[in-house]
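Slide 14.
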Amino acid sequence: MPQEKNSDKKSNKIPNFAEYEKERLKNLASEAKKIAQDLKSAGQKIGQDVLDAPEKKVKEQGTLKTAWEVFKEAWAKTGKDFRKSVGYKMGESVFQGLLPYCQNLLFGSLPGIVTGASGATAKFIGAAALNVVRERLGEFCRFKSKMATIVLTDTHANAASSTIYKDILHKPRPYFKKNAPASLGGVTSEIVSAKNALLNTSVECLSKAVVFGISSASLVAVDPMLAAGVLGVTAVTAEFGGFMNNAYRKLNSKMRSLSQKISKENRDSIKNTPLVQDTNRVEMEAKQMESRLNKSSKAMQKITYASSKAYLKMSMAINVCMQGLIMAAAFADVVKTGDIGRFALISTASWQMINSGSRLSELWNAMQAGTYRLIDASKKLITPKELERVTGKEKLTERDTKISVRHVNFAYPQIKDVTDMSLVEAMDRDGEIKRGEEVLKDLSVEFDKGGLTAVVGTSGHGKSTLMSLIRHDYDAQSGQIFIGDKEIRELSDDELNAHIAFVDQNVHFFDESVGYNLKYFKPDATDEELMQACEKSGFNSDIQKFKNGLFRKIGQDGSELSGGQKQRLALARVFLTDKPIVIMDEPTTGLDPNLSLKIMKSLKDMAQDKTVIMVTHNPTEVALSDRVVVIEKGEIAADGKPMDLIKTSEFLRNVLTKDDIKNKNKLYQTSVNGVNPMQEAATVLNEESKGKVLSDIERAEKRKLLEAHKRAYVNVRKKTIENERRKVGKPLPEKRQKQPLNPPSAIPSRGGAEM
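Slide 15: predicted structure.
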């Protein structure tokens, strides 16, 4: 245990810069030596060495390339705002860089004024005026640059956010099972903030580079050795900054992982507040939460203190050395030339070069840190390798309704929330894909139009997974899935979405009106078409009750609707879009029996010329389906008509009986065709014969029923009498033959008169 603590402390300590430089130079020398040895080797051997060399990880994109891409994005999407910001910033830099020359003219004229040389005063006034103009123009450019930067920051943030949102909208559906919209919004803000910071830092860095360049040119012209010394110090400072950025980045990544872990633990405590209260552990849990936060804060404070201390030591050492060097060089030049103006030029140019170089180094380090920050944040939005799929550009027609699943095997990839990763985890995401237990095993099945198909089976055995693969949410590990004669990997997501309508158990809606949520799927639909679709899904009666009808707001994700209303609205979208293939997962969940039967009628009608597949656990839906496919343990266990499968499928026997199927079909026929008056009359009479005393209202209803359907009443009465006679063993009354109105025997013959 003590060894672990020591290793933790060591891992949180920033390495020594001198040791780092020594090791870096040693590695450079070793690489140079190796390259020299390789160049002496034969061509074949070099080629073989290259082939045998271990595969290296792709290096991260460099700071300059990243900054250049951000520059190009800003140039393309913000236009004149970017050009104005950069232009005014460069103007400010040029006027600042001219300071040593103005100082040279100003102080160079002072000896002439002292000696009374002619024109010295005019020269001094002109130099002073020039310096004033330079300062005022610099202030003007600084002000305009500041205003332009504010505008640029906003416009660039909007453009960058739009690009990221578009990228998110193109992500595959399974990506959102692990990444909540709130998390993605946070990552978007993080990326946009990093891009804006990198853009502004890059522009500032470019500005200081201009100042540094002008100052360097001034100093090189006067004292090349001093200029070389300043350049050397600037290079060392930049190298130190890069070293600190790299060290701090690794430590910060560890700290971010620790902070995320602590935040999750604290959120879990808040989420389970009822449990904490039930166990009387409120005070204890609060102390644990505080302890976790303190642990994270103390570790971060140590790292920040260590880095700040290292920066302070380096800057103090550089400043002390350079101050002595500049003063000595300027004094020696004055002694040699006797020109005070050159003293001002050397000292001003040197300090401006040092300050701008130091600032340039800081900005460069900030650019590196911004690049790392942008790269780390952007990695969180990279689609995991586990979700990458093969897509093509083939097209489907309305005739392509047949789905063929051939020998498919599949297990879900184990995907971590990519928005919640440390740097190390993000870097290792291109490794081997880890998967869970196999869900589908060599599964083959076909679906086509001409009947409603119910897919049933025990939960977790592959029903929804099969539907997800048909929609191409994932690539199957092996096997193929065809729509028509096209394999789904030959089709684009757009083509599949245009061809397949899908209703999930968890339906989603916009925080808009009913009409908006319907028209989003078919923008040119008329109100009449919307109501027809709602009638098929049983949602029209709800719309009629709404105060604003189709304009009724339904709230975020349909929060203002009941579960059944949301399900019916989702089904209305299916009827409205009229796509050749319809896949539904528990489509009538939460609906009352009468509505379910009405929707089943609409689905069965639709299935006559479309491929309609329904994953369900509802016995009524199974009984009324034209075909039932049973999936057990990832395989097709049974396939056929409901009544036939009762004999062969143990799973279906546990769900339904033959009588269940008959009764549910009778109920369905009654719901579709209306109540049979003969059955209704029989029900009333049977209840009365059993001794039920009818109320006045029921007797009135009975009278109306029997008056409206006399023939039905007579037939029911006859059947009742026949049943009673059979029970007691009496013979049934013989059917009387109809006699003609005027039988021949009743007609007197002509001969009768004679009698």
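Speaker note: Residues 282-337 form the longest helix (56 residues).
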